[in-house]
Amino acid sequence: MELTSREKVIVIEQNQEIALCLKGLKKDYGSKQVLKGIDLTVQRGQIIGYIGPNGAGKSTTIKIILGLEGDYSGKVEIFGEEVTEQSVDYKRKIGYVPEVAELYDNLTAREYLTFVGELYGLDFQTADQKAQQLMKVFGLEEVYHARIASYSKGMRQKVLIISSLIHNPDLLFLDEPLSGLDANSVMVFKEILAVLAAQGKTIFYSSHIMDVVEKISNRIILINDGNIVADGSFDELKQQNHEGTLEQIFNQLTGFNEHKALAEEFVAIVQGV
Ligand SMILES: Nc1ncnc2c1ncn2[C@@H]1O[C@H](COP(=O)(O)OP(=O)(O)OP(=O)(O)O)[C@@H](O)[C@H]1O
């Protein structure tokens, strides 16, 4: 499809707009330094794959950006505005799928999603209508009025995904979002991300499923021990590290080559040898 010159200008402007900027982000928990100075600028429309070993500080970064974790040093800017502990308005531009969520089991999906929609500034009717339509797309129209307590894991995850997008945010934080989704739903969700990114939404995608990160991200950021140790497209990382898959690059950059020895040790202990 040929873009008109006006559309080309809009695309260039969008690409230059900065959605997220982290400057010297540091965070300690007691004597443990979890983030040691994260500097990061994310352009609007990018899909960032944010990866790193367990405990590297990925969720901590996301929670700081969302204002869920205080007591850090450094700066967080969202669409050019510095986020402070008092800032609230910027949250309307953000959607979030947490790694672990407290869904209100006693509520129905309708009650929960309209509650979240209203928190994000939608009126009840709009939230109700959108929530019902989105549930239908995910094949959940029949349980819209059922309590979340009766949902399977994947059904809960779909409600979480809907709740993160109901207010049409510009910046989306996804922490292991595919958790519990079946293969068909994964396909739908990956397609949703591609369409959102094409519309200029910015997506920050944190996951351990390397082949998905490799495919959907146009920029991959690897953090290890509180620092960014790699930043680039998958092709760039592949060239720099002479490795074939993102999983292999991950192993190399985190200095890990003991999987066989560790597996054998584990099984030997299980067998009581
Ligand atoms: N509330 C807390 N109190 C104390 N330590 C914490 C707290 N939250 C996180 N940590 C520590 O901070 C470090 C980073 O945790 P974080 O959850 O950010 O890691 P992660 O990269 O998201 O890991 P994973 O891949 O396992 O989800 C870990 O060592 C963790 O124990």
Word description of this protein:
With 273 residues, the chain is of the alpha/beta class. The chain has 10 helices and 10 strands. The strands form 2 sheets. It has a 6-stranded mixed beta sheet with strand order 6-7-8-3-9-10, sandwiched between helices. A 4-stranded antiparallel beta sheet has the order 2-1-4-5. Strand 7, helix 6 and strand 8 form a beta-alpha-beta unit. Helix 3 packs across helix 4 and helix 8 packs across helix 9. The longest helix is centred in the C-terminal third of the chain and has 16 residues. It is globular. The N and C termini lie far apart (65 Å). The site of adenosine-5'-triphosphate has 11 residues, from helix 2. This is ABC transporter ATP-binding protein.
What order do the helices and strands come in, and which of them pair?
Blueprint: H1 5-16, E1 18-29, E2 32-43, E3 47-51, H2 58-65, E4 73-78, E5 81-82, E6 94-97, H3 109-119, H4 124-137, H5 153-165, E7 171-175, H6 183-198, E8 202-206, H7 210-216, E9 219-224, E10 227-232, H8 234-241, H9 246-253, H10 259-270
Parallel strand pairs: 3-8, 3-9, 6-7, 7-8
Antiparallel strand pairs: 1-2, 1-4, 4-5, 9-10
The chain binds adenosine-5'-triphosphate.
Number of strands: 10
Helix content: 25-40%
Mean pLDDT comes to 90
| N-to-C CA distance | 65 Å
Order of helices and strands: HEEEHEEEHHHEHEHEEHHH
What general outline do the C-alpha atoms trace? globular
Q: What percent strand? A: 15-25%
Bound molecules: adenosine-5'-triphosphate
The number of helical elements comes to 10
pLDDT under 50 segments (min length 5)? none
What would you call the structural class?
A: alpha/beta
Biggest sheet descriptor:
6 strands, mixed
Question: In order across it, which strands form the biggest sheet?
Answer: 6-7-8-3-9-10
* Cα-based radius of gyration, to the nearest Å: 20 Å
